[in-house]
Design a protein that fits this description.
Rossmann fold; 3 domains; six-stranded mixed sheet; five-stranded antiparallel sheet; 12 helices
Length: about 400
């Protein structure tokens, strides 16, 4: 760690983080303490007071987040998101070089055993000392020390700390592994497991080089089709991460679903919480998630939007003849179930887009015109319906 640089330090009040705080302060590191109180335990407020008092006596800046209104769902995941968003905010506020976390050897071993159970290729086996998470530089200086080493040091130096009673609950998988596996390891078994992690990471580097090569080729169709399944899945996970889609916790089933869509070589738009994945005949791309659009036209006038233009001149496929009775017109992006009545019958807009092999990225904003009766009277690329065709059109809709 650069002593001249400012670091945010995650301090819960437990033995690990309080020892970390003590060591950084002893080393005269420029730090800002970040404490999150989830209000989930009886001792939560006691831990907050412990951290604040410790920092006050030593004139260490301390920032506290009360996170008692987290979204419903997986508490551990929601708490992690809230915590790292808090770290990000503080890193920007204090122009910090990174965030220091009190993960130790037992956390490293627990993570490795959890990864083995998940049966997928991680980016790294166990925990790295320095890593980028959500755009933050995370530093873990205590990975060479066991939980017992830390507790012994805290007692020897008289460092105050609180006890998180939820660490004893076996409802969390990590807690089960902690109490039923890691805490029971002998010193020799620990050494053997640590050596195993080192060897696994050497083998992993070879696989990750194949993964990176596939990502760097931007999923070139032939290379992707020929890659083995586990390499494809991890290339997909990494590629999504590179495009700001948090795929770290995607299940194998989730990745397999996306992988199958790519390999089918169809044109599809796949929706994530914050982005769209566009699959066009085996080629993949990411697009920003944009709201649906709708424009109301009270009378005939020229108009230009990011999605279409209304003009008084154009070709036959962009032509439509509207009357006063059609207004107000709504011009919007197509929706599932949209269809238009043509001379030979009704045509689904979705079927037209597929047949014309319109790229999925373009489909999202494909315009249709709806009259005041709610009837689709025009679709870009198809033209107008049977009721709005004439040899003297008065409106043209162009992309």
């Amino acid at each position: 760690m650069e002593r001249k640089q400012t670091y945010i330090v995650g301090v819960s009040g437990g033995s690990d983080s309080m020892v970390l705080l003590h060591l950084l302060n002893l080393n005269k590191q420029d730090i800002v303490v970040a404490h999150v109180n989830y209000k989930k335990r009886k001792s939560s407020d006691d831990d907050q007071k412990l951290v604040e008092d410790y920092c006050r006596k030593r004139e260490i800046p301390c920032e506290v987040l009360i996170a008692d209104q987290l979204p419903k769902g997986n508490f551990q995941e929601q708490a992690r998101k809230a915590r790292y968003q808090f770290f990000q905010k503080l890193a920007e506020k204090y122009d910090a070089f990174g965030v220091v976390i009190a993960h130790h050897m037992d956390d490293h071993l627990e993570t490795y055993l959890l990864q083995k159970e998940s049966k997928r290729i991680p980016l790294y086996w166990g925990l790295k000392e320095v890593v980028q998470i959500d755009g933050l530089r995370i530093v873990r200086p205590l990975l060479d020390f066991s939980k017992q080493d830390i507790i012994s040091y805290a007692k020897e130096k008289g460092i105050p700390y609180g006890e998180d009673e939820t660490n004893q609950l076996k409802v969390y998988k990590r807690n089960q592994i902690r109490h039923e596996n890691v805490s029971l390891l002998t010193e020799q078994e620990r050494e053997t497991l640590l050596e195993e992690i080192i060897e696994d990471n050497k083998e992993l580097e070879i696989k990750q080089s194949e993964v990176r090569a596939l990502v760097e080729k931007d999923f070139e169709k032939k290379s992707y089709q020929e890659a083995v399944e586990e390499i494809r899945f991890e290339a997909l996970r990494l590629w999504l991460l590179n495009h700001e889609i948090d795929s770290r916790h995607f299940t194998v089933a989730h990745l397999k679903e996306i992988d199958q869509l790519i390999r089918k070589e169809k044109s599809i738009r796949y929706e994530f919480s914050n982005k769209f994945l566009y699959i066009d005949n085996g080629y993949v791309s990411i697009g920003e998630k944009e709201d649906a659009y709708s424009y109301i036209l009270e009378e005939m006038e020229e108009m230009e939007t990011p999605y279409f233009k209304i003009k008084k001149e154009g070709d036959s496929l962009s032509a439509i003849t509207v009357s006063r009775e059609d207004f107000p017109l709504e011009i919007r992006n197509w929706r599932a179930g949209d269809k238009i009545e043509l001379r030979y019958g009704h045509k689904k807009v979705s079927r037209f887009l597929i047949e014309r092999k319109i790229p999925a990225k373009m489909r999202a904003h494909w315009p249709v015109v709806v009259n005041n009766k709610g009837e689709i009277i025009f679709v870009l690329g198809i033209g107008c319906d049977v009721e709005h065709y004439s040899n003297i059109p008065n409106m043209f809709v162009v992309k």
